Each structure stands twice: as C-alpha cells, then as structure tokens.
Amino acid sequence: MADALFVVLRKIAQSLAEGVLDKISTEVVEAAPILEDFEHSMKQIEGELSMLQAFIGQVSGKKVGDKTFDAWLEQVRDVAHDVEDIIDEYAYITVQAMDKNSFFKRKFHQIKNFAAWQKFPSQISKVEARIQRLAEMRNRYDISVGEQGRSNILQSTNQHFLSESAYLTHDSEIVGHADEIGRLTQYLLEEKQDRTLIAILGMGGLGKTTIASSLYKNQQIRTVFDFHAWVTVSQTYQVEELLRDIINQLIDQRAIMSSGFMTTSRMRLVEVIEGFLRDKKYLIVLDDVWDKDAWLFLDYAFVRNNHGSKVLVTTRRKDVSSLAVDNYIIELKTLQYVESWKLFCKKAFRALKDSICPENVRSWAEKIVAKCQGLPLAIVTLGSTLSYREVEEQEWAFFYNQLSWQLANNPDLSWISNVLNMSLHDLPSYLRSCFLYCSLYPEDYKIRRNLISKLWIAEGLVEDREDGTTMEDIAENYLTELTQRSLFQVIERSAYGRARAFLMHDLLREVTLIIAKKEKFGIAHGDAGMTQITHEARRLSIQRGAQSLNSLTSSRLRSIILFDPEVPLSWIHDALSRFRLLRVLCLRFADIEQVPGMVAELYNLRYLDFSYTKVRQIPASFGKLMNLQVLDLRFSYVEELPLEITMLTNLRHLHVCVIRDIQERSLNCFSATKLHGNITRLKNLLALHTFSFNKDLASQLGNLTQMRSLTVMNVRQNYIAELWNSLTKMPNLKNLLLFAYDTDEILNLKMLEPLLNLRIFWLAGKLEAGLLPAMFSKFQKLTWLKLACSGLKKDPIISLSHMLNLVDLLLFGAYCGVQLTFCAGWFPKLNSLQLVDMEYLNQIEIEDGTMTGLHHLELVGLENLKAVPEGIKHIRTLHQMFLTDMPKGFIQSLQGNKNHIVQHIPNIHIFDSDSQAVHNFHVVPFVSNKFGPGAAKHAPTNWGSSGT
C-alpha cells in the first residue's frame, strides 16, 4: 500500500504547483516507516476481523440464557465493530486519496498530509489490547464457548417442555386444520403393507405437535397398532438417548434392567429395537426433527417388516419432510381469521358465558388476533395471558400498544419467543445475518428477491465463491434455504416458477427484530414518539414517523433504508454529512429533486437507490463512487447519464427508467436513457435498463459477457446484426427487452441466431414482411413473451404454439389480421393472455382443450370484436377477465345473450382507459409489485392512459 501511495502522491503533487513536489517528497520519506508498519498492521487486523466474525457466527444463539456469556459476547461484537470501522475508514481514505479535487486540494496540500493515516496505528493498538482483555476476561469468569454449558442444557430441556406441553393439549382445544387432520388420519389407517414415513411440515407455532399428539392418542388409530412410541428429537439430540428413549417405551422395564441395554453401544441399541419390532405393527412419532441425519440410524432401527407400520415426523425443515416417500407430506398453513377468532375467544374469555368477546374490548381483541396472523401458538398464548386481566378497554389498548415490549420482556409470553427463536438459533451464521436483515423491513412487507439479494451482497453478507456462480445466484439459494426452513412464505413466483416475493410472519419478525437490536445489527424506526436514535446499530430502516426524527448520535451506521417518503430533507443532508462510511443508501420515495452533494463523497457506497424520486440529473461526481455495485434510478426523471458512470467498474446493476405509459400500450412507453462513453469497462454488469443504443454501443455490448437482463431502446435496422452478435456472446442472458427506434423502423431478424437461454422476451417494433422470424421456432425456454407493434399479417398463434413452457403471452398491436385461433393442446402452461389494440381483429376461435390452465384474460381496445368468443366457456380455470376500451356491442353481448359464456368467471372488470378505476386496477398493482407497498399512493393518476 505504501508504494502505491507514493506514486499517487507524486502524480498529484506534479499537478498542483511548483515546489509542492519537494515538500511532499520530504513528507513521504518521513512517513515511509509509518506506512510500512501500517500496511503490516492492516493485514493483521483484517485477519483478526475474519476470525472475530467467524467466532461470533459460530456461537451466536448457541448458548441462550447464559447472561455472563451474553455480556462477554456483546463486548466481542463491539470489538469486531471497532475493527470494521478501522477497515472501512481505511478503504474510504484510500479512495479519497485518489480524488485530487476533494481530498488533496483540501487535505494533502496542507502540512497535515499524513494525519489521517497516522491515527490508524494507535487505533489498531487499542483494539489489540481489547482483544487481549477479552481473552483474560473469558478465563477469569470461566466463560465456556465450545462445550455445551448449562444454558444449552436448559435450552434442550425447554424444547422438551414445549413439546410435552403441546402433547398434553386436549382435542377439544384444537381449532382449524380439519382437512389436514383428515388426510393424516387416512394415511395412518390405510391398509398399506410397506412401512410409511409421514411428515407434518410448518413454521414453529403452527400446531404440528398438537395435531400429532391428537392423532397419537386417538383410540381408533391406537388400536390398529401393536406398539407405540413418542420421541421428542429437538435440536440437541443425542442418537443414543433417542434410541434408549424408544427402548424404554417399547420394552418391559424389567427386561431392560436385566439386559443392560442402557449402557450398550449405539449399534447394539439399533439392533435391539430392530429385533423387537421385526414382527410388530408399530406407530412411532418423531416430534420436532431438525436434522435429516437423525433419521440415518432410526431408519435401520425401524424395521421394514411389511406389517403396515407408520412413522410420523413433525419438522420445520423441508429437507427433513422430504424423507417422506410418495408425497406423504402435510404442510400446515396459518389459520383463517374466523378460526383464529374462535380460538382466541376460547382462551381469552373462557370464564365468560359461551366465550363471547365483550363489546368494550372487541376492537382491541380484533387487532390482537390480526397481529397473530393465524399462528395458533401466538393466539393461544396471548389469549391465555389476557384471560387473567381485567376486561377493560384501557388495559387491552395498553397491552396491544406495548406488544413488542411484552414479547421481549413478559415471562408469560416467553413461550412465543422461545418457539420462534428456535428456528433462528438453528441457522448457520451466513443465513442468520441475512434473516436478521429481513426483520428491518416493515410488517407485512413483500420482500422481493431482486431487491433483497442486492442489499445482502452490498452489505457483504453473501459469499463470493469465485467458481463462476454469481453472488446473486448464491443469495437466491439463501432465500430458498430460509423458505425450506419455514422462515419465509413464498407469495409470488415468476412466469417460470422462480420464487419472486416472500413474506415473513409478523410475530417472527418482531422477535427477530428484538435480537437484531440487541446485537446492534440494526433497528427499525417506526415509533412516532421516538425523536432521537441513540442505539449504536449498523443499519437503520425508517418505516414511519420520519417527521419526528431529529438527529442520529450513532457513529457506526452503514446502511440507511427509507420506507417513509415523509422523511425531512434536512434530516437526509444531516445523515449524509455524519455517516460518510455508508455502504447502502436507499432513498426510494424520498421527496427530493436533486441529488444531495454529499452523496459523491460516500466512497464506500455499494448500493444507491433514488428510484421513485423527482431527481432529474446525476452529477459527474458519481464517477468517484468506485465501489458502487447497484445504481437504481427507476421511476425517477433521469433521462441521461454522465460519461463518468462508465468508470464504475464494480457496477453489477444499472437501472434507469422513466415510464411514460404505465399500461405499456405505446412503443415509447419507456424513455430511452442516453448513456455516454465506452461501456466496455463495465464487465461486471448483470443488468442494464433502459438505454438508447447506437452502433458504437451495440458493438461494445459484446464485452459485457456476464449480462443477464437487458433493455435496449431506439434500435435501428442498420446495426441490428451487430447488436445481435453482441447478444450471442452473453451465455447467461435470460431477459431481453428490445424496442425499435419508432413505428416506421422495420426490423429484419430473419438471419439471426436464436438466443436459446431466453426466458423473457419483449420485442417491440415492425417485423420484416409482417412475419415472425425463424428464430422463434427455437425459443423453447421462453416463459414470458410480449410482441408489440409488430405488424404481423399472419395469425401468430400457430407459430408460437410449440412454446410449451409459455406462461404469459401478450400481443399489443402485434397483428393486423382479423382472426386468431387457439387449437386444442396448445399452451398447456399458459396462465395469462393479453390481447391489446389489434384494430382489425373480429374473431377469436378457442377450441376445447386449449390453454387448460389459463387464469387471467385481458382484452383491450379490440375495436372490431363485437361479440364474446364462444370458446371462453371451455376455459374453466379462468379466474379473472379485464376488459378495457372494448366496443359497446361486445359489452352488451357480455351482459346479455352471451352471458352464459362467461358465467364461470368469478371476476370480470370493465374499464375505460382514462377512468379512475383503471388507475386503481393497473397503476396501483403495477407500482406496488415493482416498488413495494406505499409507492402506489404516489403514482400520478394520469399514468392510467396510454401515450402520456
């Protein structure tokens, strides 16, 4: 580092003035020993941080309830933060030293040239001393780290207690899950000779153990089996203990004592159980299984004897449930609200006649039940706790308003946090940090894969394996793991089944957020009464009450994520001046028109988001943000980027988009952002949207071989071949949006190679001779296809019918003919069909057996389609139909003599494109899906009409 710094200093000195070179040379010579020692120390301290982080990740959550250990570990975290501060400050000054305009002219030009560097050795010495004291403290207070201590034993005992408590639940107290219990009963009673493994899967608190207990005690089921055993496995199981527990329940106690089974080896225990069960029909319940490896020995012990034996497993993990063959898996879901209310009243008002909720507390009771989001554990625990309180509105209101505090501090509610936290404690360190991060989102927030993965990467939470796998792929795998551990619910999938949005149960979020705050990982500001944040957390999400924010006293903030658009502009400027080491700055929705000047000084930034703001211009000074990975300017007013953006060689995602027509019925529905300079240096780019291309850029694209998602605008025929040649050099390209220069530009794609890996393709512009090019016959992987303004003269449906994986098909002004025909067997996976603005179309033939899975049909601006297509009656899966700007004759036939054709469709919506209704049905969902809750209320109402 020292040699590199000398070179930089000399170059800058030469550019400043005469005589400066001699002065700086003298300073360099004097500082050389300091810098060389510092370089060595920095390498040591970076290694120390890696060890600290690995240690914290290994022990976090493993010794729950040990207050001495917790206090010591908190100091270890503080030291790790100090080390991280030193490294981040070093990175900041290193980049700043290369920025002669902001640093050398203001700092290095003065005598204090090396003041910034000279402070590091003393800081490192202090950290090393603190680490030494922590080691001494551990010995002094006999703090155990690796071995299982008293807290672990208590945790294991607590898990058994929770399991046994659920086991003792009366059947009369079970509410809901009738279908699941019925199916499980059927599985247990069915006459199948093979031993059957059945799994009950679901998040903690859903009632898996309660249901398993109900079945295990059911006399109709018990009489079918010769022997029964119930074993709680838990997170801290020992194989020998499990086997002995089973033997205790299966074999006579006198036989056990005389045989010495309880002191024998693991394999001998397996043989004993196997021998005893060899000719028996048995039912064994394995409750609370966390690790599929536990099954390895039990599989041998539970003999396959063709007597129709059953093994019932309860688990939170999908990999464990997958041990069940032939899909004998029952996945529990949360209760419906009606069921939740019934269960809550049974617990909270059990002393009242018929357990009816008194009117004076009804509104608060409903809020509490809604907060539980159908989780039986929470409903039962909160209801039971409230049953001992006075039925007075003030007391219930206080309880609800303090629910977060209650969960963290009220012993009566510890059952909830204990059960939910078990899943968190089971996570490996790399998943634990990522899950803590998700708790910073607002409650009921739709966590989108594309956004959260970028934030995790920017925060350094995702491993870079350097094996050709992108960090985005690894982040997606993390999300999959969290889902398979029942910590997330997938609520939205892409056209090809890829999980796209996730939801965290609100109470799980609450208990996780408590841990995130305790460990100084992050805090969520959402209390309108909070005016100052003093907690030294690394991350801050502002969810609501932003107007009450005054200032921050923490010096360690690395991330600011904005969810409340009402944050004062003065607060933003204050925060940016205080926290120069920020890695993540998300000002989405902020009411700002200009980029704050301090942003360009945040040299450590990885993630920068000004989407959905009024920002119009990006300054050239952004070229200094050399660490930037994500620049998101969607829904802003930026239509041109400075040349300096092409200097940001670490960029992975660059999104710029001004939307002019949210219904996307016009060719220029997006603006074509101008990007100056040579983009060949942006070799790490994975996504580039939405840019105006020319011949030079078309050829430069070929250097961006990592590209996965791309939007090109203003495409002309004279360089389409060169552009396409560049695209063929992108083996991972999955999403391509290609727009012609204007409605008169004719694109000839006949001789071009197909892009075989495309999943999403949007082609807008006239096609040569009005025909689909031959390459379309090779698009076997396409799941989403939109053709717009194509000028097709021949019915395109037959040319697309081979696309068996197509889920979404959108034809916007694509066809000039009069008839479209959908034949039987075509489009078996199609979920959504949109036919828009085809002015000559007057007939749509739909045969029985086509589009057998169609869920959504949209007909827009089909001026000559006078009658409802008869074939719609064959599509029994249709759930909704949207009709916009359709002829009066069509609407009259729909509501009159053709009504029988659509009577099976539960949701039919009829609009005019300039109505408020179309704004609510198109604009609001569009913005909410793209940018999350809260964005829709800021969407301009005039975006509902085309061509705006």
From TrEMBL:
Coiled coil: none annotated. One of its GO terms (biological process) is plant-type hypersensitive response. Residues 440-510 form the Disease resistance protein winged helix domain. Residues 179-351 form the NB-ARC domain. It comes from Panicum miliaceum. InterPro entries: Apaf_helical, Disease_R_plants, LRR_dom_sf, LRR_R13L4/SHOC2-like, NB-ARC, P-loop_NTPase, RX-like_CC, Rx_N. Keywords: Coiled coil, Leucine-rich repeat, Nucleotide-binding, Plant defense, Repeat. It comes from the Eukaryota. Belongs to the disease resistance NB-LRR family. This is Disease resistance protein RPM1-like. GO terms for molecular function: ADP binding. Residues 20-102 form the Disease resistance N-terminal domain. Gene3D superfamilies: 1.20.5.4130, Helical domain of apoptotic protease-activating factors, P-loop containing nucleotide triphosphate hydrolases, Ribonuclease Inhibitor, Winged helix-like DNA-binding domain superfamily/Winged helix DNA-binding domain. Residues 557-879 form the Disease resistance R13L4/SHOC-2-like LRR domain.
